[in-house]
Amino acid sequence: MQLIETNVHSGEDTTTVEFVGEGGERVSVCMVAHDIPEVAAITRAKEIMVQLTAFDAEPAQQGDVGDDTENEEAVENTGSRSEARS
Asked: Could you give the angle at the alpha carbon of 86 between the alpha carbons of 8 and 58, nearest 5°?
């Protein structure tokens, strides 16, 4: 995914960092945190994604790589949705 834009949205109890890719791909990380600086939120979202990929020993159990729907649902069930490349 070629990153072209990063958006940060703060809600009442959460902050969501959305990474937007060239082809319209969107990956986001929703964190239980609010009112944190934008740069800190982006850094934390990247850390979460690294942790998610580093500890995912058997990704085949979470759905076929070609099936975006199953992959999104699997990531949503972890409490965060994200992936980015800077």
From this structure: 95
| H helix intervals, the chain | 38-54, 68-76
Distance CA 23, CA 55 (A): 27
- Does residue 12 sit in helix, strand or coil? coil
* DSSP code per residue over 28-50: EEEES--S--HHHHHHHHHHHHH
Token pair 């975006």 in the structure block, residue: 68
The C-alpha angle 68, 22, 64, rounded to 5 degrees, equals: 15
Q: What is the pLDDT of residues 38-76, one digit of tens each?
A: 999 999 999 999 998 877 666 555 555 555 544 454 444
Considering the entire predicted model, what is its pTM? 0.63
By the 10 Å C-beta count (0-12 exposed, 13-18 middle, 19+ buried), 41 is classed as buried
